[in-house]
């Protein structure tokens, strides 16, 4: 058999915020297509009008792009299989529903919601495990159907699931899966509003868009036999299926939960995670190269990724500590200045993250002190805020000897002729010795008076950057003495 061109897809439904797990699945699909020089397609599955959220599509496209991932065909870029919005493909689904009606593989159903509800209740009372449509409308003859259509009785179109058939498909991750057709309901293909169901539209579009591999979360396995039946009813070749583990909160229930932190893909960026670090973390949620290598660029991932190495587990743990560690690794190895190829350095990323609130020149100066101390961009504000604004000093956390400590610091620093780190170190340390102060206590008071915090980057290096004028002003403000700065 001739090998098909590799074409993968991601098919977001605009029903809410894009989840971090979606980015993981998208990444796998994207990488697989790139590995084989194929195409990665984005399709918007917006046929569920009840769950449709206005503006969600734009936000989904935006967040995918902000992770640096691009699609070869789809919204905004177009492609040979336009349109890429299912809501604009209704005629295609109608046409295909007609094909199945003509083949006897689908039928009109005019049952009302009330009747279906009653039917389900009766089945439940008989302890039927999963309720199914009782095929009442399958008994209608041609003339009855035509009359109802003429009278505009609302209807859905259902698939006629073949009786006594074993539905079998191969999953590239899990292996062979087999389900008796008696387990499958005569699913609705076209709803009463004329829109297709997910099951119907997904099969038609994956076929027409020539998708070679359907890679998605394993919560879709129960749907796949329904899709297989549709491929068979149309007489189409099936794509390869690969169902990948879903994500679970580390050490907790099943799903990721807001109680533990970010869940939406955008939230992670808002928290100050770098897209490359998050992607690197996501690569390992369901796949492993089988080596010790943990830091992966996208190109390296494309090279090493393979479906054979996808984990055969149901769920993989989302370890937030690991993500934080990964992010700190990326921050530490980032260049501070922008790179010649235009890639933004850490300075620009911080500048952008804080919306230009902090001066880029100062950011650049203080980053060497902070780069190994911040795990997210957001933490920059916690550690560096004092460089930009006068801190609030809580005198209650100073030692009993604080006045003497700070007065001495003022005296020593005022008298310094040069404002280098070693001048400051030597000046302060010899005065501490001379006055018999406790070194730790002195420096803690000094640190708090200048920064407002007990936890800061190295204090002497920080005050070199802050400058003599500013440091003396701060010390004097705490002491309550007039800012009579002489130097
Ligand atoms: N629209 C479905 C979703 O929201 C796509 C599922 C699939 O990949 O087949 O996840």
UniProtKB/TrEMBL annotation:
Classification via SUPFAM superfamilies: An anticodon-binding domain of class I aminoacyl-tRNA synthetases, Nucleotidylyl transferase
Keywords for this protein: Aminoacyl-tRNA synthetase, ATP-binding, Cytoplasm, Ligase, Nucleotide-binding, Protein biosynthesis
Catalytic activity: tRNA(Glu) + L-glutamate + ATP = L-glutamyl-tRNA(Glu) + AMP + diphosphate
Domain of life: Bacteria
Subcellular location: Cytoplasm
Aminoacyl-tRNA synthetase class I anticodon-binding domain: residues covered: 358-478
GO biological process, one term: glutamyl-tRNA aminoacylation
Main subcellular location of this protein, as a coarse class: cytoplasm
Gene3D superfamilies: 1.10.10.350, HUPs
Single GO molecular function: ATP binding
Top-tier EC class: ligase
Residue numbers covered by motif 'HIGH' region: 12-22
Domain Glutamyl/glutaminyl-tRNA synthetase class Ib catalytic: residue ranges: 6-325
Entry function: Catalyzes the attachment of glutamate to tRNA(Glu) in a two-step reaction: glutamate is first activated by ATP to form Glu-AMP and then transferred to the acceptor end of tRNA(Glu).
Family: Belongs to the class-I aminoacyl-tRNA synthetase family. Glutamate--tRNA ligase type 1 subfamily.
NCBIfam families xref list: gltX_bact
Protein name: Glutamate--tRNA ligase
Classification lineage: Bacteria, Candidatus Woeseibacteriota
């Amino acid at each position: 058999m001739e090998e098909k061109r590799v074409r993968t897809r991601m098919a977001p439904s605009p029903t809410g915020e894009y989840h971090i797990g979606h980015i993981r699945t998208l990444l796998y699909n994207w990488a697989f297509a790139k590995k084989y020089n194929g195409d990665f397609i984005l399709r918007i599955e917006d046929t569920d009008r009840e769950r449709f959220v206005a503006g969600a599509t734009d936000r989904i496209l935006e967040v995918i792009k902000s992770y640096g991932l691009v699609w070869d065909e789809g919204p905004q870029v177009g492609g040979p299989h336009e349109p890429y919005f299912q809501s604009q493909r209704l005629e295609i689904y109608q046409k295909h529903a007609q094909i199945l009606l003509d083949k006897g593989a689908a039928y009109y159903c005019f049952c009302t919601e009330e009747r279906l509800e009653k039917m389900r209740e009766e089945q439940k009372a008989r302890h039927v495990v999963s309720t199914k449509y009782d095929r009442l409308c399958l008994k209608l003859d041609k003339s009855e159907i035509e009359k109802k259509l003429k009278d505009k009785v609302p209807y859905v179109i259902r698939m006629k699931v073949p009786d006594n058939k074993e539905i079998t498909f191969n999953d590239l991750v899990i292996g062979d899966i087999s389900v008796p057709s008696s387990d499958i309901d005569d699913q609705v293909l076209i709803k009463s509003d004329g829109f297709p169901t997910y099951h119907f539209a997904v099969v038609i579009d994956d076929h027409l868009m020539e998708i070679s591999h359907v890679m998605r979360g394993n919560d879709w396995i129960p749907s796949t036999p329904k899709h297989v039946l549709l491929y068979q009813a149309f007489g189409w070749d099936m794509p390869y299926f690969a169902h990948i583990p879903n994500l679970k909160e580390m050490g907790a229930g099943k799903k990721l939960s807001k109680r533990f932190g970010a869940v939406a893909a955008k939230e992670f960026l808002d928290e100050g995670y770098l897209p490359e670090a998050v992607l690197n973390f996501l690569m390992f949620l369901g796949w492993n190269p089988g080596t010790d290598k943990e830091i992966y660029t996208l190109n390296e991932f494309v090279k090493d990724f393979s479906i054979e190495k996808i984990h055969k587990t149901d769920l993989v743990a989302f370890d937030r500590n690991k993500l934080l560690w990964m992010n700190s690794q990326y921050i530490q190895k980032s260049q501070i200045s922008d790179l010649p190829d235009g890639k933004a350095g850490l300075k620009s990323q911080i500048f952008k993250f804080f919306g230009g609130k902090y001066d880029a020149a100062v950011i650049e100066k203080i980053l060497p002190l902070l780069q190994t101390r911040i795990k997210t961009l957001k933490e920059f504000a916690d550690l560096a805020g004092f460089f930009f604004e006068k801190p609030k000093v809580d005198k209650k956390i100073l030692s009993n000897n604080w006045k003497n400590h700070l007065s001495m610091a003022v005296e020593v620093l005022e008298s310094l002729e040069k404002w280098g780190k070693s001048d400051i170190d030597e000046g302060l340390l010899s005065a501490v010795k001379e006055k018999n102060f406790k070194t730790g206590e002195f420096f803690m008071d000094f640190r708090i008076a200048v920064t407002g915090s007990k936890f800061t980057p190295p204090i002497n290096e920080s005050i070199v950057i802050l400058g003599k004028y500013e440091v003396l002003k701060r010390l004097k403000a705490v002491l309550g003495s007039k800012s009579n700065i002489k130097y």
